[in-house]
Design a protein that fits this description.
By secondary structure, the chain is mainly alpha-helical. It is about 75% helix and about 0% strand. It is built from five helices and no strands. Belongs to the mitochondrial pyruvate carrier (MPC) (TC 2.A.105) family.
Length: about 130
Amino acid sequence: MSSPSAYQRLVQRVAARLPDKAREVFLHPAGPTTIFFWAPTFKWGLVIAGIGDINRPVENISLSQTFSLMMTGLIWSRYSLVIIPKNYNLLSVNAFVALTNVYNFTRGYMYQVQQQQQQQQQGNPKKRDKKK
Protein backbone atom coordinates (compact mmCIF):
# COMPACT_ATOMS: atom_id res chain seq x y z
CA MET A 1 0.00 0.00 0.00
CA SER A 2 1.33 3.45 -0.86
CA SER A 3 2.05 6.08 1.73
CA PRO A 4 -0.50 8.86 2.28
CA SER A 5 -0.12 12.00 0.22
CA ALA A 6 0.83 15.34 1.74
CA TYR A 7 -2.82 16.40 1.49
CA GLN A 8 -4.02 13.29 3.32
CA ARG A 9 -1.42 13.80 6.07
CA LEU A 10 -2.53 17.44 6.45
CA VAL A 11 -6.21 16.42 6.68
CA GLN A 12 -5.37 13.84 9.35
CA ARG A 13 -3.35 16.39 11.37
CA VAL A 14 -6.20 18.91 11.24
CA ALA A 15 -8.75 16.22 12.12
CA ALA A 16 -6.70 15.13 15.14
CA ARG A 17 -7.02 18.63 16.62
CA LEU A 18 -10.81 18.85 16.19
CA PRO A 19 -13.42 17.88 18.80
CA ASP A 20 -15.08 14.50 18.16
CA LYS A 21 -18.31 15.92 16.66
CA ALA A 22 -16.43 18.32 14.39
CA ARG A 23 -14.05 15.53 13.35
CA GLU A 24 -17.02 13.41 12.19
CA VAL A 25 -18.25 16.24 9.96
CA PHE A 26 -14.75 17.10 8.75
CA LEU A 27 -13.94 13.51 7.73
CA HIS A 28 -17.41 12.63 6.39
CA PRO A 29 -17.33 11.19 2.83
CA ALA A 30 -19.24 14.28 1.65
CA GLY A 31 -17.49 16.65 4.05
CA PRO A 32 -15.34 19.73 3.49
CA THR A 33 -12.27 17.71 2.54
CA THR A 34 -13.98 16.47 -0.65
CA ILE A 35 -15.29 17.86 -3.93
CA PHE A 36 -18.71 16.55 -2.89
CA PHE A 37 -18.88 19.42 -0.41
CA TRP A 38 -17.27 22.23 -2.40
CA ALA A 39 -19.01 21.74 -5.77
CA PRO A 40 -22.53 22.17 -4.35
CA THR A 41 -21.33 24.98 -2.11
CA PHE A 42 -20.10 27.03 -5.07
CA LYS A 43 -23.19 26.08 -7.08
CA TRP A 44 -25.20 28.32 -4.73
CA GLY A 45 -23.97 31.08 -7.05
CA LEU A 46 -26.48 29.79 -9.63
CA VAL A 47 -29.24 30.11 -7.06
CA ILE A 48 -28.20 33.69 -6.31
CA ALA A 49 -28.18 34.46 -10.04
CA GLY A 50 -31.64 32.89 -10.41
CA ILE A 51 -32.97 35.02 -7.58
CA GLY A 52 -31.41 38.07 -9.24
CA ASP A 53 -33.21 37.16 -12.47
CA ILE A 54 -36.54 37.54 -10.68
CA ASN A 55 -36.07 41.31 -11.07
CA ARG A 56 -34.99 40.97 -14.71
CA PRO A 57 -37.45 42.35 -17.26
CA VAL A 58 -39.57 39.45 -18.43
CA GLU A 59 -38.81 40.10 -22.11
CA ASN A 60 -35.12 39.40 -21.40
CA ILE A 61 -35.66 35.93 -19.93
CA SER A 62 -34.14 33.12 -21.99
CA LEU A 63 -36.55 30.18 -22.04
CA SER A 64 -33.89 27.74 -23.25
CA GLN A 65 -31.48 28.77 -20.47
CA THR A 66 -34.04 28.66 -17.69
CA PHE A 67 -35.46 25.36 -18.98
CA SER A 68 -32.04 23.70 -19.06
CA LEU A 69 -31.18 24.96 -15.56
CA MET A 70 -34.58 23.82 -14.30
CA MET A 71 -34.08 20.31 -15.72
CA THR A 72 -30.48 20.14 -14.49
CA GLY A 73 -31.66 21.04 -10.99
CA LEU A 74 -34.33 18.34 -11.06
CA ILE A 75 -31.99 15.65 -12.40
CA TRP A 76 -29.19 16.38 -9.93
CA SER A 77 -31.68 16.63 -7.04
CA ARG A 78 -32.77 13.08 -7.79
CA TYR A 79 -29.16 11.93 -8.23
CA SER A 80 -28.18 13.32 -4.82
CA LEU A 81 -30.67 10.95 -3.17
CA VAL A 82 -29.48 7.89 -5.11
CA ILE A 83 -25.74 8.15 -4.49
CA ILE A 84 -24.03 6.80 -1.41
CA PRO A 85 -23.54 8.66 0.82
CA LYS A 86 -26.62 10.80 0.28
CA ASN A 87 -25.52 14.37 -0.29
CA TYR A 88 -28.07 16.76 1.21
CA ASN A 89 -25.98 19.81 0.32
CA LEU A 90 -26.20 18.73 -3.34
CA LEU A 91 -29.94 18.08 -2.95
CA SER A 92 -30.68 21.49 -1.44
CA VAL A 93 -28.70 23.53 -3.96
CA ASN A 94 -30.18 21.70 -6.94
CA ALA A 95 -33.72 21.92 -5.56
CA PHE A 96 -33.27 25.69 -5.28
CA VAL A 97 -31.74 25.89 -8.78
CA ALA A 98 -34.80 24.05 -10.09
CA LEU A 99 -37.29 26.18 -8.13
CA THR A 100 -35.84 29.56 -9.10
CA ASN A 101 -35.71 28.52 -12.73
CA VAL A 102 -39.24 27.05 -12.69
CA TYR A 103 -40.42 30.48 -11.55
CA ASN A 104 -38.37 32.37 -14.15
CA PHE A 105 -39.32 29.94 -16.94
CA THR A 106 -43.00 30.32 -16.07
CA ARG A 107 -42.69 34.11 -16.14
CA GLY A 108 -40.98 34.05 -19.53
CA TYR A 109 -43.35 31.48 -21.03
CA MET A 110 -46.47 33.35 -19.86
CA TYR A 111 -45.06 36.56 -21.35
CA GLN A 112 -44.38 34.92 -24.72
CA VAL A 113 -47.87 33.35 -24.82
CA GLN A 114 -49.38 36.75 -24.00
CA GLN A 115 -47.35 38.40 -26.78
CA GLN A 116 -48.49 35.78 -29.31
CA GLN A 117 -52.12 36.26 -28.30
CA GLN A 118 -51.82 40.02 -28.70
CA GLN A 119 -50.29 39.58 -32.16
CA GLN A 120 -53.09 37.23 -33.18
CA GLN A 121 -55.74 39.64 -31.92
CA GLN A 122 -54.17 42.47 -33.88
CA GLY A 123 -53.97 40.29 -36.99
CA ASN A 124 -57.51 38.88 -36.88
CA PRO A 125 -59.48 42.14 -37.50
CA LYS A 126 -57.59 42.65 -40.77
CA LYS A 127 -58.60 39.19 -41.97
CA ARG A 128 -62.23 39.88 -41.10
CA ASP A 129 -62.14 43.19 -43.00
CA LYS A 130 -60.86 41.45 -46.14
CA LYS A 131 -63.74 38.97 -46.04
CA LYS A 132 -66.35 41.75 -45.96
